[in-house]
Amino acid sequence: MSLRQHVEMDTHHWVSKQNKVERRRKRVRMLAFAKFAEAKGARHPGQVGSNTVVSFWKHLRTEGLAWETQRDYWYSIKALWEIWGKPDEPPQPRKPVQPADDSSQQRQQVVD
C-alpha cells in the first residue's frame, strides 16, 4: 500500500466531520505531502518524520510559494501528525527574513 493510500484511508472519516470544505483542502495538501514523501522513499506513515517535513519545506521554497501557503501546508501536516498519533508537532517552516530597509536609514540621515 502506498503512502497516499494510507493518507486517503486515514483521513476518510476525518474529512466528513466539521468544516468539510476546509478539511478537503487540507486533505489535498496532505496528499501533496504524501506524494513528496513517497518520492523520497517513504511507503508507510512510520517512515515519515521530521527530516521528510524539512525537505518538503525546502522543496516548497524552491517552488516560490508564499509564506502563507507554506503555513497552510504546516497546518495540514500537523493535522496528519495528530491523525497518525505521532508525538509532538512537525517542524514549522521558517518565516522568510525581510531584508533591511535602507530607505528609512537614509531618511534618518537627511533629517539629522
From TrEMBL:
Entry superkingdom: Bacteria
Region Disordered, annotated ranges: 86-112
Record's compositionally biased regions (Low complexity): 101-112
Descriptive protein name: Integrase
Annotated source species: Hydrogenophaga atypica
